[in-house]
Amino acid sequence: MAQLWGGRFTKETDRNVYLFNASISFDKRLYRQDIEGSIAHAVMLEKQGILTEEEKDAIVKGLSTIRSRLEEGSLEISDEYEDIHSFVESTLTKMIGDAGKKLHTGRSRNDQVALDMKMYVRGEIIEIDNLLKEFQKILLKIMEENLETYMPGFTHMQKAQPVTLAHHMGAYFEMLRRDRSRLQDIYERLNICPLGAGALAGTTYPLDRGYTASLLGFESPTLNSMDSVSDRDYVIELLSALSTIMMHLSRFSEEIIIWNSNEYGFVEIDDAYSTGSSIMPQKKNPDIAELVRGKTGRVYGALMGMLTTMKGLPLAYNKDMQEDKEGSFDAIDTTKECLLMFMQMMDTMKFRKDVMARSAAKGFTNATDAADYLVKRGVPFRDAHGIIGQLVLSCIEKGKSIDEMTLEELKSISEVFDADIYDAVSLKTCVEKRLTTGAPGISAMRGVIAEYRKYLKD
After folding, report:
1. Active site residue 156
2. What was the pLDDT predicted at 5?
3. Rounded to a whole number, what is the distance in angstroms from the first to the last CA of the chain?
4. Which residue among 88, 107, 186, 335 is least crowded, i.e. fewest CB within 10 A of its CB?
5. CB-side exposure of 402: number of CA atoms within 13 Å?
6. Which is the catalytic residue, given 156, 214, 220, 248?
7. Is there a catalytic annotation at residue 277?
8. How far apart, in whole angstroms, are the C-alpha atoms of residue 112 and residue 37?
């Protein structure tokens, strides 16, 4: 058992206690951040005259060698070490001798692990944001190709008014835009450096924390050493943002699952992104969408776990905070995998435009426009609403859509109807005359698409 402490103890830690306490099995993924932070710390110590130039050079070279050997596979992280910090420091000391023992001067594992986790989260935010941007590009492509692909819009899972596929995809583009904005906010808030805060009360060594922060790409050093080592708000915020991303993906998944059903038939999922049944040969299942929907609960669980872990902790650092990693790592991995798979499914999926348009027409999504037609001819809205209700009932009884009714049938319900009703309730007209900002009309949507192109370019 390789540990960075023990002088005060008179007997070995119980083996089971050691294993229960150790974090090397999961925090080893932080080796890059640990080495990068240690290099910056050594450079700062030499600048402040705490290390000699020779000691600093030996440490930096040794840490760089460890990183290279880990990445090429000639060095493995051993579970005999308690955590990634002890592995790196012990390996360095074996490699360069006593100079390696000086690396930890002026810092604690408390500020070290806080730094590693912040740097890790910072990098993952950038990766997740890039995935969201790629997803938006796919959605924008679908929007550009489907400005006149008519489909029913829904409320209460009931067909409501006609929209276009471009308009529908735009709603998810907006969700992803908010997701990216949240990630940016988190990045800006977390980007202050805890290194040099020590265990909780700083250090007597003349550290230049601002210099260390600049070396590591942080805006500034943290201003309270107790908060520096006990803050995990950024982890909670990230898990909350990931939960919202997964909620958006889950809503989208639910729609794809419904659209893929025989009853709707709006989409055809590519064979490469669906599966069959072991017993029912006709089945083509939307497994990607179902798994994304299911994995959403897993990410929610990580958020609730972290909130519960932190809710009763007094200042400053407590070992409970070691629980910030496994759930967060899993939530990050899960979200990234779900985004990637869902994007690829969407990029290869075919939309059945004829089925969508037919569903919109058969679903009386133009009923509101039929009522507006009557209102423009002097019928009070409440009376027009009742007339169209009677018309829909008659259509249902006859198995027709509004535009399939003869003019004679329409006039039997209201003499106000004339031949121009058919143009007024066509899907094209119903959509085209909705031109306010955010509406599905082509000119309104083209303006939105232009804005989205600029947004992605910027």
Report:
1. yes
2. 45
3. 52
4. 186
5. 31
6. 156
7. yes
8. 8
